[in-house]
């Protein structure tokens, strides 16, 4: 489903204009970014949660040469699917 199709479908279901639905989605995305950055997680009930996690530095291997390389520490964002979503989809 494309963004345009998503906006059209939500607009029809909610009885709102595409512009209003677009603004709501943009606000939700902005809120997800700021809350995840500030608190380390953002939950969408019934769907899942974004979780910020720190990865430690580690040793890796270059697959082309086989040489050992050092992979630096970094912060990553993961999405954990809610149990309700798993049960509904799977």
Considering the chains and any ligands shown, give keywords for the structure:
2 domains; 3 helices; about 45% helix; alpha+beta; about 90 residues
Query: Structural class of the secondary structure composition?
Result: alpha+beta
Our measurement of the CA-to-CA distance between the termini, rounded to an integer number of angstroms, reads: 19 Å
Residue ranges: pLDDT <50 for 5 or more in a row?
A: none
The string of secondary-structure elements, in order, is: HHEEEEEH
- Order of the strands making up the biggest sheet: 1-2-5
**Proportion of residues in β-strands:** 25-35%
Overall shape: it is elongated
What's the CATH H-level superfamily name of the largest domain?
IHF-like DNA-binding proteins
Helix content: 40-55%
- Mean pLDDT across the residues is 95
Please identify the oligomeric state: single chain
CATH level 3 topology of the largest domain: HU Protein, Chain A
Find the count of extended strands (DSSP E, 2+ residues): 5
CATH level-1 class of the largest domain? Few Secondary Structures
CATH architecture of the largest domain: Irregular
How many domain modules? 2
Tell me about the largest β-sheet: 3 strands, antiparallel
General description of the model:
With about 90 residues, this protein is an alpha+beta fold. It has two domains: about 1-40; about 45-90, IHF-like DNA-binding proteins (HU Protein, Chain A), CATH 4.10.520.10. It contains three helices and five strands. It has helices at about 5-15, 20-40, 85-90, and strands at about 40-45, 50-55, 60, 70, 75-80. It has a three-stranded antiparallel sheet. The protein has a two-stranded antiparallel sheet with strand order 3-4. Helix 1 packs across helix 2 (about 20-40). The protein is elongated, with a radius of gyration of 19 Å. It starts with a helix and ends with a helix. The mean pLDDT is about 95.
């Amino acid at each position: 489903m494309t963004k345009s199709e998503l906006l059209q479908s939500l607009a029809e279901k909610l009885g709102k204009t595409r512009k209003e639905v677009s603004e709501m989605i943009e606000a939700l995305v902005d809120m997800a970014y700021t809350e995840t950055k500030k608190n380390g997680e953002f939950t969408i009930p019934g769907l899942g949660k974004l979780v910020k996690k720190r990865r430690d530095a580690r040793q890796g291997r270059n697959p082309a040469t086989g040489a050992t390389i050092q992979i630096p520490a970094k912060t990553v964002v993961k999405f954990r699917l809610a149990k309700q979503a798993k049960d509904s989809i799977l």
